[in-house]
Amino acid sequence: MTTKVTINRLATGVPGLDEVLGGGLPELSFNLIAGPPGCGKTTLAHQMMFALAKPEFRAIYFTVLGEPPLKMLRYQQQFEFFDSEAVNGSIRFINLSDDTLTGDLNRVLERIVAEVATHSPSLVFVDSFRSVVLSADPPNNPEKTLQQFVQQLGMLMTSWQATTFLIGEYFAETDNNPVFTVADGLIWLRQSVERNSMVRKMEIMKMRGQPTLPGLHTFRISGAGIEVFPPAQVVPYRNVAASTTSGPERLLTGVSGLDDMLGGGVPRGYSVLLAGPSGSGKSVLASAFLAEGARLGETGVIAAFEQHPSHSRNPVVAALIASGRVGLIDSHALDLSIDEIVQLMLREIHRLGASRVVIDSLSGFELAVAPTFRQDFRESLSRLTLALASTGVTVLMTSELEDRYTDLRFSPYGTAFLTDAIIVQRYIEVDSRLRRVMAVVKVRASAHSDDLREYTIGADGIHVGGTLPAQEGLLGGRPTRKRALGRPVVESD
Questions:
Q1: At what angle do helices 41-52 and 69-76 cross, to 10 degrees?
Q2: 474 burial class (0-12, 13-18, 19+ CB within 10 angstroms)?
Q3: What is the pLDDT of residue 184?
Q4: Please, are residues 222 and 264 in contact by the beta-carbon 8 Å criterion?
């Protein structure tokens, strides 16, 4: 019986990359890191090298740039992953500039082979091999074309007992080069500028022997280095409380009248859409939802995409954040991706063990996302909702609506069907005065009130009143025009 060979996988040290690769980097593999200038190829290679290199697992980094390694290291050491003690120890930098300038590619290959044979490294990097070829002198080396040189270098690297990398500048995947066939792994980096947004994406076009995550994955370069944002893995969440004969466990919203309208509160694990026009009290209700959780010993997370919940604007949430009972996601970066936002939220949920999440608001969320990701915003909201639902948290999302009195909508994105419950806030006009009303439109698999109730907002929060009387607003027997929930209504004696 044939014994299956086990391939050891190396942890790259790049957050999110191991997941995208399908479990890590195959040991003894030959990999190509490609992409246009400035997309982060060298940074990615250095970050992996510093994470993997040890005294017993040494690395060699060949530089063929026009600048000396010291200049390159001057910038790379600004990253948190850089370890100066590893340089000239477990990591050795070798400059091939002099060999490259001769234009003799045979000499370049011989130097690389000699250094590898002398030091027996476990990791080998050549950056940038394309520069080697472009500096060659064709008249002196007619047989050493671009393809021939790269193919020969690739074959040499596959024969070494080391995990090897070629870093090269390519602008299209269609470049005719045999190295794409020889390589075990092909990591392609991209970048684009849209308005004021710099969007970087990574694609694992090839990785032999393991299932990689398909598609383009956004990544960010920060002071810590590169972080990749893979799509959240959705694992179905089983709410044990929901399967009992007594029905699902209910979470109180902090607004007693609303809890009655919902049938006793929000079922745990539900996603709730709170829709209403500006000034209707969406953020106030969201604050009450988080404060009620804190009162009951639960932690929460708020993703604020409009205004920062500072003390002056929202003292309730500000106090909860200061006490550590609510985590804050408040990123104003112009190049956010959906996957990055989801990962930030999941990270904070797991850190706090949160059971309540507020997204305030979907309108601000859309503006926070880079323009390139807004084209499929509806699909993105679906992924966000599913990812949060898989953790078992109860989610309250606010949505800004224009109160036009002529139609009834719950979300400008056509995503109301994604949520388990819908609460709508509207204005009505009675005797030339605006009054606020609230209704519960939907609570999936649960009875709820269909009353239209007036509510007020005071210093201590929202107060829900009783059902609006059918004849409310009549003065002296004269008909009063009243508008509510999308249709004009004329009432008379």
A1: 80
A2: middle
A3: 92
A4: no
